Amino acid sequence: MICLVTSCEKDRGFDTGSVPSYVETEDYVDLGLGGLLFATKNVGAKNPEDAGGFFAWGEVKPKSYYDWKTYKWANPATEREYIYDQVTFSRYSCHWDGTPDYPFLQPEDDAATVILGEGWRTPTFEEMIELLKCEYRRAVRNGVFGFEYIGPNGNSIFLPACGDIVEDHLINVEDGAKYWCSDCPTGTSATILDINRFGAVWGGHELRMLGLPIRPVRTEKAPVVRGLIFNVLDRYIEQAGQLLATIKREDYSAADCQNLEDAYGQAVAVRENPEKQKFIDEAARSLRLAIMDLKPLPKPSDITAVDLGLSVRWASANIGARNEDDYGYYISWGELTPKPIGHYRWADYQLCKEVNEDDNDYSLLTKYVTDSQWGEVDNKTRLDLEDDAAHAYLGGDWRTPTVEEARELLEKCTFVEMFRHGEPVMKVIGPNGNYILFPYAGFADWQFRVEFTVSCWTSDLVADFPVRACCFNLTGFAGISWEDRIDGLPVRAVCP
To answer: Can you tell me the distance from the alpha carbon of 357 to that of 92, in angstroms, rounded to the nearest whole number?
Structure first.
């Protein structure tokens, strides 16, 4: 899920006004790929985990706004705001037969060369695809999600999943990674290295006016150079935090809220002016999500096991949460990673290999199938550990709870609705007096995020209708229920 709400003026966005200052750093790694040396970090990054600068293809400085009107090589007379296929270019265009006027970026238009110096350059697609010869794995380094590529000689590099910028919006953070290549475009799009959320490397294209990071290369050893001090994520976090701080926390005290009620289980704080209060609630929640999405990823050690006096211990927070108040990740049943809102659909579901013409309908599933109508039957009705997000994230004996364990929580615990830091939470008190908190995180379906509910996945399939999986609800119609497997729900882990 990616949500970004910020009031960033165009003249205060990403453009620093001049080439920023630099810091000393070790700069390259030999992965054993025939003399090709990869930089240890992106152009403009302070360390390997930083996003660094975001550049439009063929431009050499970050800027505040990324569209066709601000793109250096687009002809200003072109009517190009919405009709991308009619954009014409003053450089890096195509001849009548479709061949480009330059095969690759020229040194004066290559941000890696201009900023880091002679020898450094944006890699070609053929060079970037050399990463296919490496082993790879998803990794979190200093709280930042990304991908580690281990070369044939055992050396490695880390590529952060840092998103891309369209206009003045940072999007797709942690949804894989995209990096520019130097191959000259044959139209409005340029070549990229596209890394999916599991680390697999693919070729792809993006509109060349977008802001993407660059991982530079060179073919001979280089002296220690200086890298850009520029991190757009830090700026967004700071701005969103300042805006969130303007919302008075006392406006959310329990004494001011009369009740929580809604016909669909969506709680609305009822005050003297409910419409105004609802607007403030929505703004605060959107800002909270923006900050949560942009801050460094939580570490598994942030989550502890709480003994409630039940058959299993329950995690202190949702998977992906930094503390017990955070919503955490929204994960489709049987997948391991979250997705942006709008991608919780059958076409993007890992365990669906064929989708009907209606993108919101299912067709053939690849696993957890109990009826041949939906694929080859394997009669699996409980998540394997390899498909269990709780186990993948926390390791050890952690896993997603079964229906029986969720029912035990519902039947033996006491539930108290309360407010913490202005947000509604459900306090679940075990038979022994210990408790855990569930934020009203809601869930994500194929269109948008549904709010004001507490629902979490179990590890069990709906056996007679395998396109659905079981979840437990603590609000509305509390109890064991179901959702489509593609929906994004929080996961609250358990362990012995």
So the answer is: 38
DSSP string, 197-230: TTS-EEEEEEETTSBB----EESS----EEEE--
- The two structure tokens encoding residue 243: 């805006």
Q: The tokens of 136 are what?
A: 């790879």
**Which two structure tokens, joined as six digits, stand for 284?**
């605060």
The predicted-structure confidence for 363-389, as pLDDT tens digits, reads as follows 789 999 999 988 899 999 999 998 999
Poorest-pLDDT segment among 7-16, 21-30, 215-224, 428-437: 7-16
Strand 479-484: give its sheet, edge to edge: 455-461, 468-473, 479-484
For 295-338, the pLDDT digits (tens) are 455 566 678 999 999 999 999 999 988 788 888 888 999 998 78
DSSP 8-state assignment for residue 98: S
Residue whose token pair is 């993007």: 348
Tokens of 489: 């729900």
Prediction pTM value: 0.46
Q: Is-contact 282 244, C-beta < 8 A? A: no
Cα dihedral across residues 378, 379, 385, 389: positive or negative: positive
